[in-house]
Amino acid sequence: MPRPSPSNADVSLRMSKQRSTGTSPEMSLRRELHRRGMRFRVEHRIDIDGLRRRRADIAFTRRRIAVFVDGCFWHACPQHATSPKANAAWWATKLAGNVARDRDTDDRLSAAGWTVVRIWEHESAADGADRVERAVASAEPQGRPPGPNPAPPNH
Q1: Which residues 6+ apart lie within 8 Å of 98 measured at CB?
Q2: Whole-number Å distance between alpha carbons of 82 and 122
Q3: How far apart are CA 149 and CA 155, in angstroms?
Q4: In this structure, are residues 32 and 23 in contact, taking their beta carbons and an 8 Å threshold?
Q5: How many angstroms separate the CA atoms of 98 and 74, rounded?
Q6: C or N terminus of the chain, fewer CB within 10 Å?
Q7: Residue 67: beta bridge partners?
């Protein structure tokens, strides 16, 4: 379905300025995780077959944990989702596609041995960090992440 013309220039401008990365909820969670001594990768591209264009907001690669901070509007939060009245059919299709892509990502990552943690933007950073911390604590390290091999020891 082609993108419809904006029904309101002000709304169009506001929507075009929405960040896809580094959102306030994501930054709050990252600061809280960092404060707790946790180190992670940001906007980590996951190269699993079929997921080449998808990135985890936060990733613990050695433990194979992918964290996504989902916006209530864009990911159709069961508590806070809204349905735009202008161009309603287009938006319904768009948002349903986002949710379907999220489930597909979850399924593919799980099948590849990753743990997926999804945090809603309305959750507090502390609650989200608690969930991430539990996932990290219960996951086994998967060995060295891909990269250059260390130099052999001198004997």
Answers
A1: 74, 75, 76
A2: 14
A3: 18
A4: no
A5: 7
A6: C
A7: 58, 117
Q: Is 15's pLDDT higher than 60?
A: no
- Cα–Cα distances (Å) from 42 to 31, 54, 61, 94, 96, in that order, read 12, 13, 11, 26, 26
127 phi, psi to nearest 5 deg: -65, -45
Q: Which two tokens stand for residue 46?
A: 């996951």
Q: Is the dihedral of CA 98, 99, 101, 106 positive or negative?
A: positive
- Reply yes or no on whether the pLDDT at 81 is more than 90: no
Amino acid (1-letter code) at residue 151: A
What DSSP line would sit under 19-42, residue for residue? -SSS-HHHHHHHHHHHHTT---EE
Separation CA 27–CA 33 (nearest Å):
10
**Are the C-beta atoms of residues 65 and 132 closer than 8 Å to each other?**
yes
Name residue 64's amino acid.
R
The tokens for 58 are: 């936060």
Helices 24-35, 125-138: inter-axial angle, 10-degree rounding: 50
Provide the 8-state DSSP code for 62: G
> How many CB atoms lie under 10 A from the CB of residue 113?
10
pLDDT tens digits along 48-71: 877 777 899 999 999 999 999 999
